[in-house]
Protein backbone atom coordinates (compact mmCIF):
# COMPACT_ATOMS: atom_id res chain seq x y z
CA UNK A 1 0.00 0.00 0.00
CA UNK A 2 1.40 3.39 -1.02
CA UNK A 3 0.26 7.00 -1.18
CA UNK A 4 1.62 9.01 -4.11
CA UNK A 5 1.65 12.81 -4.07
CA UNK A 6 1.93 14.52 -7.47
CA UNK A 7 2.88 18.09 -8.36
CA UNK A 8 1.37 19.68 -11.48
CA UNK A 9 3.40 22.14 -13.58
CA UNK A 10 1.67 25.55 -13.70
CA UNK A 11 -1.69 23.81 -13.44
CA UNK A 12 -4.11 26.67 -14.16
CA UNK A 13 -1.84 28.10 -16.85
CA UNK A 14 -1.80 24.85 -18.84
CA UNK A 15 -5.55 24.48 -19.44
CA UNK A 16 -6.09 23.70 -23.13
CA UNK A 17 -9.22 25.56 -24.26
CA UNK A 18 -10.23 23.06 -26.94
CA UNK A 19 -9.99 20.22 -24.45
CA UNK A 20 -11.93 22.24 -21.85
CA UNK A 21 -14.74 22.98 -24.33
CA UNK A 22 -14.88 19.29 -25.28
CA UNK A 23 -15.11 18.37 -21.58
CA UNK A 24 -17.94 20.86 -21.04
CA UNK A 25 -19.88 19.27 -23.93
CA UNK A 26 -19.19 15.78 -22.57
CA UNK A 27 -20.47 16.71 -19.11
CA UNK A 28 -23.72 18.03 -20.60
CA UNK A 29 -23.41 21.78 -20.10
CA UNK A 30 -25.90 23.77 -22.16
CA UNK A 31 -24.67 25.47 -25.32
CA UNK A 32 -25.40 28.97 -24.00
CA UNK A 33 -23.06 28.47 -21.03
CA UNK A 34 -20.34 26.99 -23.23
CA UNK A 35 -20.61 29.97 -25.60
CA UNK A 36 -20.05 32.34 -22.68
CA UNK A 37 -16.88 30.42 -21.77
CA UNK A 38 -15.73 30.73 -25.39
CA UNK A 39 -16.35 34.48 -25.32
CA UNK A 40 -14.38 34.92 -22.09
CA UNK A 41 -11.41 33.08 -23.61
CA UNK A 42 -11.54 34.67 -27.06
CA UNK A 43 -8.15 36.13 -28.06
CA UNK A 44 -7.02 37.12 -24.54
CA UNK A 45 -3.83 39.15 -24.23
CA UNK A 46 -1.71 40.49 -21.43
CA UNK A 47 1.35 42.57 -20.64
CA UNK A 48 3.97 42.50 -17.91
CA UNK A 49 4.75 45.55 -15.76
CA UNK A 50 8.20 45.64 -14.14
CA UNK A 51 9.80 48.68 -12.46
CA UNK A 52 7.07 50.95 -13.87
CA UNK A 53 7.82 49.69 -17.38
CA UNK A 54 5.05 47.89 -19.28
CA UNK A 55 5.88 45.36 -21.99
CA UNK A 56 4.11 45.03 -25.32
CA UNK A 57 0.91 43.03 -25.16
CA UNK A 58 1.14 39.36 -26.09
CA UNK A 59 -1.40 36.65 -26.88
CA UNK A 60 -2.32 34.04 -24.25
CA UNK A 61 -2.69 30.69 -25.96
CA UNK A 62 -4.04 28.70 -23.02
CA UNK A 63 -4.85 28.81 -19.30
CA UNK A 64 -7.63 30.15 -17.12
CA UNK A 65 -7.59 33.74 -15.88
CA UNK A 66 -5.92 34.34 -12.53
CA UNK A 67 -8.25 35.87 -9.96
CA UNK A 68 -11.37 34.88 -11.88
CA UNK A 69 -13.89 33.19 -9.51
CA UNK A 70 -14.85 30.81 -12.32
CA UNK A 71 -11.31 29.50 -12.89
CA UNK A 72 -11.22 26.90 -10.06
CA UNK A 73 -14.48 25.34 -11.27
CA UNK A 74 -13.29 25.28 -14.88
CA UNK A 75 -10.05 23.63 -13.81
CA UNK A 76 -12.01 21.01 -11.85
CA UNK A 77 -13.96 20.19 -15.03
CA UNK A 78 -10.73 20.14 -17.04
CA UNK A 79 -9.03 17.64 -14.69
CA UNK A 80 -12.06 15.40 -14.07
CA UNK A 81 -11.52 13.21 -17.20
CA UNK A 82 -8.12 12.23 -15.76
CA UNK A 83 -9.70 11.31 -12.43
CA UNK A 84 -12.44 9.35 -14.22
CA UNK A 85 -9.87 7.43 -16.28
CA UNK A 86 -7.99 6.44 -13.12
CA UNK A 87 -11.18 5.40 -11.31
CA UNK A 88 -12.43 3.33 -14.25
CA UNK A 89 -9.15 1.53 -14.94
CA UNK A 90 -9.49 -1.92 -13.37
CA UNK A 91 -5.71 -2.44 -13.49
CA UNK A 92 -5.28 0.32 -10.92
CA UNK A 93 -5.96 -1.00 -7.44
CA UNK A 94 -6.71 1.41 -4.63
CA UNK A 95 -8.38 0.93 -1.26
CA UNK A 96 -11.51 -1.13 -1.74
CA UNK A 97 -14.29 -0.70 0.80
CA UNK A 98 -17.88 -1.81 1.16
CA UNK A 99 -19.26 1.31 -0.51
CA UNK A 100 -16.50 2.46 -2.87
CA UNK A 101 -13.05 1.95 -4.36
CA UNK A 102 -10.81 4.87 -3.31
CA UNK A 103 -8.00 5.64 -5.75
CA UNK A 104 -7.59 9.39 -6.07
CA UNK A 105 -8.13 12.59 -4.09
CA UNK A 106 -8.20 15.92 -5.94
CA UNK A 107 -8.22 19.45 -4.56
CA UNK A 108 -7.53 21.95 -7.35
CA UNK A 109 -4.08 20.95 -8.67
CA UNK A 110 -3.12 18.84 -5.63
CA UNK A 111 -3.32 15.12 -6.45
CA UNK A 112 -3.11 12.29 -3.94
CA UNK A 113 -3.26 8.67 -5.13
CA UNK A 114 -4.09 5.67 -2.92
CA UNK A 115 -2.53 2.63 -4.60
CA UNK A 116 -2.29 -0.91 -3.28
CA UNK A 117 0.57 -2.21 -5.46
CA UNK A 118 3.51 -1.10 -7.60
CA UNK A 119 1.81 -2.04 -10.87
CA UNK A 120 -0.92 0.49 -10.07
CA UNK A 121 1.69 3.25 -9.69
CA UNK A 122 3.18 2.52 -13.12
CA UNK A 123 -0.26 2.18 -14.74
CA UNK A 124 -1.32 5.53 -13.27
CA UNK A 125 1.80 7.20 -14.70
CA UNK A 126 0.91 5.83 -18.15
CA UNK A 127 -2.63 7.26 -17.95
CA UNK A 128 -1.36 10.66 -16.80
CA UNK A 129 1.11 10.83 -19.70
CA UNK A 130 -1.65 9.91 -22.18
CA UNK A 131 -3.92 12.59 -20.69
CA UNK A 132 -1.10 15.14 -20.89
CA UNK A 133 -0.57 14.45 -24.61
CA UNK A 134 -4.12 15.58 -25.47
CA UNK A 135 -4.78 18.25 -22.84
CA UNK A 136 -1.41 20.04 -22.30
CA UNK A 137 -1.66 19.09 -18.62
CA UNK A 138 1.73 18.21 -17.20
CA UNK A 139 3.08 16.57 -14.06
CA UNK A 140 6.53 17.49 -12.78
CA UNK A 141 7.96 13.97 -12.60
CA UNK A 142 10.99 15.28 -10.69
CA UNK A 143 8.83 16.06 -7.66
CA UNK A 144 6.49 13.11 -6.95
CA UNK A 145 6.76 11.78 -3.41
CA UNK A 146 5.87 8.22 -2.46
CA UNK A 147 4.70 7.54 1.08
CA UNK A 148 5.20 3.78 1.51
CA UNK A 149 2.97 2.07 4.03
CA UNK A 150 4.88 -1.20 3.63
CA UNK A 151 8.48 -2.21 2.90
CA UNK A 152 10.07 -2.14 -0.58
CA UNK A 153 7.22 -0.04 -2.00
CA UNK A 154 9.63 2.21 -3.92
CA UNK A 155 11.27 -0.62 -5.89
CA UNK A 156 10.57 -1.53 -9.54
CA UNK A 157 8.93 1.79 -10.45
CA UNK A 158 9.05 3.15 -14.00
CA UNK A 159 8.99 6.77 -12.79
CA UNK A 160 11.67 8.62 -10.82
CA UNK A 161 10.29 9.09 -7.32
CA UNK A 162 11.59 9.85 -3.87
CA UNK A 163 10.14 8.32 -0.75
CA UNK A 164 9.45 9.98 2.56
CA UNK A 165 6.94 12.23 4.25
CA UNK A 166 4.44 14.05 2.05
CA UNK A 167 2.73 17.42 2.40
CA UNK A 168 -0.88 17.73 1.26
CA UNK A 169 -3.02 20.84 1.74
CA UNK A 170 -0.53 22.23 4.25
CA UNK A 171 -0.39 19.11 6.44
CA UNK A 172 2.69 16.88 6.70
CA UNK A 173 2.05 13.13 6.73
CA UNK A 174 4.28 10.27 7.82
CA UNK A 175 3.70 6.51 7.90
CA UNK A 176 4.51 6.71 11.62
CA UNK A 177 1.72 8.19 13.72
CA UNK A 178 4.24 9.12 16.41
CA UNK A 179 5.94 11.59 14.03
CA UNK A 180 2.83 13.67 13.27
CA UNK A 181 3.14 15.84 16.38
CA UNK A 182 6.79 16.60 15.55
CA UNK A 183 5.99 17.36 11.89
CA UNK A 184 2.85 19.46 12.30
CA UNK A 185 2.24 20.60 15.87
CA UNK A 186 5.79 21.40 16.97
CA UNK A 187 6.60 24.08 14.31
CA UNK A 188 3.28 25.93 14.65
CA UNK A 189 3.85 27.83 17.95
CA UNK A 190 7.15 29.24 16.64
CA UNK A 191 5.52 30.32 13.37
CA UNK A 192 2.70 31.97 15.29
CA UNK A 193 5.16 33.66 17.67
CA UNK A 194 7.08 35.09 14.69
CA UNK A 195 3.84 36.48 13.23
CA UNK A 196 2.78 38.01 16.56
CA UNK A 197 6.23 39.57 17.05
CA UNK A 198 5.90 41.36 13.71
CA UNK A 199 2.47 42.66 14.67
CA UNK A 200 3.32 43.76 18.24
CA UNK A 201 4.00 47.41 17.37
CA UNK A 202 0.91 47.86 15.21
CA UNK A 203 -1.41 50.61 16.56
CA UNK A 204 -4.09 48.20 17.79
CA UNK A 205 -6.26 48.38 20.89
CA UNK A 206 -6.71 45.36 23.16
CA UNK A 207 -9.95 44.50 21.38
CA UNK A 208 -8.21 44.93 18.04
CA UNK A 209 -5.49 42.50 19.06
CA UNK A 210 -8.05 39.98 20.30
CA UNK A 211 -9.78 40.28 16.92
CA UNK A 212 -6.41 39.71 15.21
CA UNK A 213 -5.92 36.48 17.17
CA UNK A 214 -9.42 35.34 16.19
CA UNK A 215 -8.97 36.14 12.51
CA UNK A 216 -5.32 35.23 11.90
CA UNK A 217 -4.25 32.70 14.54
CA UNK A 218 -7.38 30.71 15.35
CA UNK A 219 -7.99 29.50 11.75
CA UNK A 220 -4.42 28.11 11.54
CA UNK A 221 -4.74 26.23 14.82
CA UNK A 222 -8.29 25.05 14.18
CA UNK A 223 -7.36 23.76 10.72
CA UNK A 224 -4.57 21.65 12.19
CA UNK A 225 -6.88 20.27 14.90
CA UNK A 226 -9.51 19.32 12.34
CA UNK A 227 -7.08 17.60 9.95
CA UNK A 228 -5.05 15.21 12.10
CA UNK A 229 -6.07 13.17 15.17
CA UNK A 230 -2.91 13.54 17.25
CA UNK A 231 -2.93 15.33 20.60
CA UNK A 232 -0.19 17.86 21.35
CA UNK A 233 1.18 17.96 24.93
CA UNK A 234 -0.26 20.49 27.39
CA UNK A 235 3.04 22.40 27.18
CA UNK A 236 2.18 23.14 23.53
CA UNK A 237 -0.94 25.06 24.59
CA UNK A 238 0.98 26.95 27.29
CA UNK A 239 3.60 28.11 24.76
CA UNK A 240 0.81 29.33 22.48
CA UNK A 241 -0.92 31.21 25.31
CA UNK A 242 2.38 32.79 26.40
CA UNK A 243 3.03 34.16 22.89
CA UNK A 244 -0.49 35.57 22.68
CA UNK A 245 -0.21 37.21 26.11
CA UNK A 246 3.06 38.90 25.07
CA UNK A 247 1.34 40.16 21.92
CA UNK A 248 -1.69 41.52 23.79
CA UNK A 249 0.39 43.45 26.34
CA UNK A 250 3.40 44.47 24.21
CA UNK A 251 5.78 42.13 26.06
CA UNK A 252 4.82 43.72 29.41
CA UNK A 253 3.16 42.10 32.44
CA UNK A 254 -0.47 41.24 31.74
CA UNK A 255 -3.06 43.59 33.23
CA UNK A 256 -5.88 41.08 32.73
CA UNK A 257 -5.40 37.33 32.99
CA UNK A 258 -5.90 35.13 29.94
CA UNK A 259 -8.53 33.19 31.86
CA UNK A 260 -10.61 36.36 32.18
CA UNK A 261 -10.03 37.39 28.56
CA UNK A 262 -11.20 33.95 27.41
CA UNK A 263 -14.51 34.45 29.24
CA UNK A 264 -17.69 35.67 27.60
CA UNK A 265 -18.21 39.44 27.34
CA UNK A 266 -21.13 39.15 29.74
CA UNK A 267 -18.61 37.88 32.32
CA UNK A 268 -16.12 40.69 31.70
CA UNK A 269 -14.05 38.84 29.10
CA UNK A 270 -13.31 39.34 25.40
CA UNK A 271 -14.01 35.77 24.16
CA UNK A 272 -10.31 35.26 23.41
CA UNK A 273 -10.01 31.78 21.86
CA UNK A 274 -9.40 28.92 24.28
CA UNK A 275 -7.32 26.67 22.04
CA UNK A 276 -7.56 23.62 24.30
CA UNK A 277 -11.35 23.82 24.17
CA UNK A 278 -11.20 24.07 20.38
CA UNK A 279 -9.03 20.95 20.33
CA UNK A 280 -11.57 19.06 22.46
CA UNK A 281 -14.44 20.30 20.29
CA UNK A 282 -12.73 18.96 17.17
CA UNK A 283 -12.21 15.58 18.83
CA UNK A 284 -15.88 15.46 19.84
CA UNK A 285 -16.86 16.29 16.27
CA UNK A 286 -15.14 13.13 15.05
CA UNK A 287 -16.76 11.05 17.78
CA UNK A 288 -20.20 12.34 16.76
CA UNK A 289 -19.51 11.38 13.15
CA UNK A 290 -18.38 7.93 14.27
CA UNK A 291 -21.63 7.47 16.18
CA UNK A 292 -23.75 8.59 13.23
CA UNK A 293 -21.46 6.53 10.96
CA UNK A 294 -22.75 7.28 7.46
CA UNK A 295 -19.86 6.09 5.23
CA UNK A 296 -21.97 6.43 2.08
CA UNK A 297 -21.82 10.24 2.31
CA UNK A 298 -18.42 10.64 4.05
CA UNK A 299 -15.56 8.99 2.18
CA UNK A 300 -13.15 9.27 5.14
CA UNK A 301 -15.62 7.34 7.30
CA UNK A 302 -15.79 4.69 4.60
CA UNK A 303 -11.98 4.39 4.66
CA UNK A 304 -11.78 4.25 8.45
CA UNK A 305 -14.51 1.63 8.61
CA UNK A 306 -12.60 -0.52 6.11
CA UNK A 307 -9.41 -0.23 8.20
CA UNK A 308 -11.29 -1.13 11.40
CA UNK A 309 -12.40 -4.45 9.93
CA UNK A 310 -15.18 -6.08 11.93
CA UNK A 311 -15.23 -3.33 14.56
CA UNK A 312 -18.01 -0.83 13.87
CA UNK A 313 -16.99 2.84 14.06
CA UNK A 314 -20.11 3.67 16.06
CA UNK A 315 -18.84 1.32 18.81
CA UNK A 316 -15.41 2.97 19.17
CA UNK A 317 -16.44 5.71 21.66
CA UNK A 318 -17.70 3.03 24.05
CA UNK A 319 -14.66 0.72 23.91
TrEMBL record:
Pfam families: RVT_1 (PF00078)
Listed name of the protein: Reverse transcriptase domain-containing protein
InterPro entries referenced in this protein's UniProt entry, alphabetically: DNA/RNA_pol_sf, RT_dom
Transmembrane segments: none
Residue ranges the record marks as coiled coil: none
PROSITE patterns: RT_POL (PS50878)
Domain Reverse transcriptase as annotated: residue spans: 1-173
Amino acid sequence: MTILSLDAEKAFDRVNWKFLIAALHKFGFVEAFINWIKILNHNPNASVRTNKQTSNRFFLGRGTRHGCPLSPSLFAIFIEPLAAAIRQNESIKGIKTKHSHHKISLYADDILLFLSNLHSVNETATIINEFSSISDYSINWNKPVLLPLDSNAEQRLTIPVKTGNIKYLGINFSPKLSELVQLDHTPLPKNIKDDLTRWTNLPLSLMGKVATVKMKILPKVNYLFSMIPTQPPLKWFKILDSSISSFLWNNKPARISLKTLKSAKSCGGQTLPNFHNYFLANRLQYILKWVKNNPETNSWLDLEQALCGKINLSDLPFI
